[in-house]
Amino acid sequence: MTTRAAEGTDVPGTADQRREQMLHAALEVISARGYADTRIADVAERAGVSPALVIYYFKTKDQLLTEAIRYYEDTWYAVGQSRMAGLPTAASRLEEIVAMTVLPEADPEPVSSLQLWLDFWAQAARNPEVAGVRQKSDERWREVIGALVLQGQEAGEFRPVDAGGFAIYLSTLMDGLTIQIALEDPVVDSTRAFELSMQFVADQLGFDWKPGRRRRSSSRAAMSEG
Amino acid sequence: MTTRAAEGTDVPGTADQRREQMLHAALEVISARGYADTRIADVAERAGVSPALVIYYFKTKDQLLTEAIRYYEDTWYAVGQSRMAGLPTAASRLEEIVAMTVLPEADPEPVSSLQLWLDFWAQAARNPEVAGVRQKSDERWREVIGALVLQGQEAGEFRPVDAGGFAIYLSTLMDGLTIQIALEDPVVDSTRAFELSMQFVADQLGFDWKPGRRRRSSSRAAMSEG
DNA sequence: CAAGTTTGACTGAATGTTCAGTCTAGAAAA
DNA sequence: TTTTCTAGACTGAACATTCAGTCAAACTTG
Hints:
mainly alpha, homodimer
């Protein structure tokens, strides 16, 4: 009773929904307290259930956290895909990717926090499960970027640079910027990071880009469910 | 008794040496087990002392770990300075910085492991103490890079680009690469990372650079003590 | 110099807390 | 009724930190 899922669901929970609700709660807690300091009790409380129920669904704490991270990555990726789908040019799709990565306001799911990524990486260093997720993630994004570059080149938007190499540069740069922003570096805030990235992209691919618009891409609800 | 400090010291311990010995042990343990899973008992064992002594020197576990990180950063910076001191051109000094960051073989102190940085960042997200260290660290390196660029420009080695902006790009890029290498990304190993970075540097600053040498910069002992 | 005294490094054995995971049993579906 | 969910109370282990001292070297002081 008194179930109060953030998104409005109020029924006791239909297995899969329950799971998702908990994963969601887990992400909130991780992003608030850090991976290591996330206790089952926290997640349970956030989800409005008993700790025992959390264990009932995820055999162990480790599994919970691991799955939470996988869930996050998948959601993030799906949101990215769906956002890009609405955009006409390769350049605008690239811009969307950069914005998603670097502007916390244009955020998928209420679970914000770039800090999650820092925990994610640190965890990947020791936990093979997490390492797998993170590697797949990186590969996916590099492929997306690479494909976008090729598309742009075919359309004559971009100059002919090595797409794979560019993908590595850009994704690496954005990882680095993520650190800066997450840690609130005074020199590199997210607006600056966005501009730096786009300047780099435009410079490398040879198209014009001026800062100024953006800042928060309205509040499109992005992906209603599933 | 049976004290067996790694570096040869055998005396019971002279306060400051003891501290340093423990900080050193702490870094080894952190880099092996991760920040969160580092127990006082581990550090004590590694240092060959009792857990109680560790607390005797550092009031709390938190203080120990925090100081260990500060110690690491300082050492790292000092090693960097001393290595650069021996090099003639701005370009070679830049190359040394890149190598230090990205090639684990050219490593300061036995405490290898780029993974330390991942823990470091994740920790900085929550621990203000660590956040301070990390920010100072970043600033220092950006200044070093910026100054190097200016030197190179005065000497006519480099083309006139904005030094501060370049420093941000390069340090960010190297942060990103650190992640890749630490997590053993199959696409970006440290050799590749080194080449990517140097290519970027040479490209931006307008000098020639070809891969090929390097790989491990001999085993100069770098900074004997203090 | 020898006998006493202080001081700081150091330890082993508690202590107390914090959690992950278990167990029992009740409620709700099927 | 049987199966699936769910909760509350509980347990056991893992640790950080404390405590009450030991030990030896470094100072006294006669």
